[in-house]
Specification:
alpha+beta, about 240 residues, 5 helices, about 25% strand
Length: about 240
Amino acid sequence: MPEVAPVKVYALAMSTVPGKRAMTAPTQPSRRAARPWRTRQLIGLACVLGLALALLPAASHAVEEPAYTIVRSYPTFEIRQYGAYTVAEVVMPPPADDAGNRAFPILAGYIFGKNKGERKLAMTAPVTQAPVPAKLDMTAPVTQSTGPDGILVQFVLPRDINMENAPLPLDPRIRLREVPPTQVAVLRYSGFWSQANYDKHLAELQAALRAANIRWTGEPVLSRYNSPMTPWFMRRNEIWLKLD
């Protein structure tokens, strides 16, 4: 008597024959019980894929960003020219790994109405993070002293907001500033917001700029375009280096 084929193979073969009754092999409870991990793996994979599909419309939805033009594209990076834009920023003490998470409720509170006039502003992208420079470029009449050592985290404000009409923050830690037009080299990558992932791609961008004989200045800027709820493989992360 020929050997009975495994259940999943036999069922697939018979299901393609119209008018035929599907045949099944004898149940093998011991075999199924020996592989509970496979069921858990499939359920876990289904959950991840389901979450990704659920978030795909939100991830693909256009979020307002600072206006820029692409000056030139290279295999691993591009050069962008940004116009002036306004930011709300706060300086957080080290370490840099969780500076963004600590700064988020402070800056989010400002745009969600914790300001003079209780005005709510639209959420925009990206959220940028960089070491505090010795001196910040200022183009608007805002008094500012040299920042202490720490991590500068910024929320980019909507394009119709400038230093003249931006609501004043109630939290004294928040500063409003106009970022002047600037040209930056940008490398885009996905994945976790870990220091190792950031260091790897920063080194890649710096090596590519050296190979192209392009000089940069100042501290690198990490730009994040997604919420922490976005799966790591769908995140848009960028590193910016200001060009001379």
